[in-house]
Amino acid sequence: MNMARITGALASVHDRTTRFGFVLAQVCLCLIVFSYTYETVSRYFFGAPTWWSNELVAYALCIGTFLAMPEVTRTGGHIAIGFLTESLGPRASRVAGVLIAIAGGLTCLAIAWISLRANISQVERTEMLVRVRPIPKIWISAWITWGFFSTGVHFLRNAVSPPSDVINVVTA
Amino acid sequence: MEWWVVLSGSLVLLLAAFISGAPLFIGFLIVNLGGVLFLIGPRGFILVANSIFDSANISTLSAIPLFILMGEILTRSGSVENLFRAMDGLVGKIRGRQYLLTVLISVVFGALSGAAMAVAAMMGRSLYPTMMARRYDPGLSIGTILAGASLAPIIPPSVLIVIIATLADVSVGRLLIAGIGPGLVAAVLIALYIYMRVGANRSLSPDVQSTDEGAGPGKLNSLALLLPFSIIIFAVMGLILLGVATPSEAAATGVIGSIIVAIIYGKFSFAMLKEALAGAMLITSMIMVIVVSSNLFGQLLGFTGATRDLVAFGASLSDQPLVLLALLLGIVFVLCMFIDQVALLLIIVPIYKPLVDAAGLDPIWFWVLVLINLSAGGITPPFGYTMFAFKATVPGLPISDVYRAAWPFVGVFVLLMILIVAIPQIATWLPSIM
User: Fold this and answer.
1) ipTM of predicted assembly, 2 dp
2) Cβ-based contacts of B60 with chain A (< 8 Å)
C-alpha cells in the first residue's frame, strides 16, 4: 500500500470520527433541552427538584462543544475577521490561508498536549468533580483533549486542502 | 512594567492576531499561551487547561445553544413566515407602511430570536425585495432592516446578554429582562426617525392608498395567526418574570414552545428538527470555543497587576462618573467598528468589571448600555456582522450603499444610549420589580 492510500484511509477515518462526534454533540443538545424541561416541570408542578439536571447540563454542554469543534473546523466555519486576507490577491490570500491553518493546527495540538498532561495528572491523583454526585474529572476533561487534538489535525489537513463547504456564521 | 504598557501591549497583540484573519479562538489561545510562558513559564500551562475546563462547565452558558436552537426551529420550519403575514395584516394603509412593518416585525422577531444576523438575513430575503418592488427608497429600506435586526440582541432572548451576564457576574434573568425597555424605546426611536425622513421627503415612500398594500389576511385573522408565537414569548420571558424558571430553563421551555408552534402551523418534521439541531450545535461550538479560549486573558491581566492599577485609575475618575462612562462606552464604540462583538465582549468584560464595581455604577444599567453599543456595532461600518448578513442576501448591492444606509441608524442607537444615561429607569425599572 503506498503512502497516499494510507493517508487517504486515515483521513477518511478521521472524517467519519468527526461526523460521528458531531451526531453525539447533537444528542448532548437534546439532553440539555430534556434535562431543563424535566427540571422545570418536576420542580414547579410536583415540587420535586432534581439533583442531576444542572450537573448533566454542564457536562453535556462541555462534551457537546468539544465534539462539535472538529466538525466546525472541517467545514471552515470558525469565526474570523477576514477583511485583511480577503483584500489580498488570490495567491497571497492562499498563502495567508495556509499559514493561518498551520498556526491554528500547531496551537490546537499544543493545547491538546497541555490538556493531555492535565488528564494524566487527574487520573494519577484520582481528581473528582465536586458536585452533588462527584464523578472523576477525567470523564469530562478527556473530551477537551480530543476536541483540540482532532481540531488541530483538521487545521493541518485544511492547510493541504482547504475546506470547500463554507458555512454561514451566525453569532449575535 | 507600567500597567498601561501591559494592558495596551496585550490588547495590541490580540488585535493583531484577530486582524491577521486567524480564527478568533486561535488568536486568544496564542496570546494566552505566550502570556503564560512570559509571566510564569511552562509550569503555568496547567492554568490554561484549568481555565478551559472551568469555563466550558458553566451551566448558565447552556442558554446559548438553547436560544440558538429556538431560532433555528422557527426559521427552518418556516413558522416565521406566518409572523410576516400576520403583521402585514395588522398595519393599515399609512405612508411609509413597509418601514413601520419592518420595525414591528423586528420587535416580535427579536422576542423570538437571539441573533441579529438571523433576523437581518431573514428580512433581507423576504422584506427587502418587496420594498424594492413597491418602490420604497433603497437606502432607508436597508437602514430600517439593519436597525430592526439590531433589536434582536437587546430584546430577550439574547445570546449576547447571556455571555455578558455570565462573564460580568450579573443575574442573567435580570439582565435579560432589562433589555425589554431599551428594545421597545429603540423601536419607537427608529419609527420616529423614519417618519421624520418620510415627512420631510415624500419620495422616500410610495402612496399606499393607490396600491394593493395592506390587503393582508384581515385584522382578526392576523391576530389569530400571531397568537401561537405568544406560547414562546410566555415560555421564555413569562416564566422568567413569574420566577418559575431560571433563564437557562426558560430557554429550554422556549425550545419546546417553538416545536409546539411549528406543529400548530403544520410545519414540523423530524428532518427539520435534525437540521435545526445540527445548525444550532455548529453555531454553539463556534461561540463556546471562543469563550473558553478567552477566559484566561482576564486572569492573566489580573496576574500582572494591570487590572488592579486600572481600577485605581478608574477610582480616580469616580467623582466624574459621566467622564468614565463616556470613556468606557467610547472605547467599545470605536473597537466595534473593527472587531467581532463576541470577541470584543470577551476582552472588555474582565477589564471593565472591576472598574464598574469600583466606580459604583449600577451593573445592570452599565451592561445594558454596553449591550446596545455592541448591537449598534453590528451595523457600524466598516466591520459588522449584521451588515454582512444582510449584504449576503442581496448579492448585487454595493457594500458602500449598506454603509451609507447604516450610519443614520447608528446615530439612533447613540441617541438611545444618551436617553438611557439620562433616564436609567428605561433599563432598570423592569428588573427592579422582579
Assistant:
1) 0.91
2) none
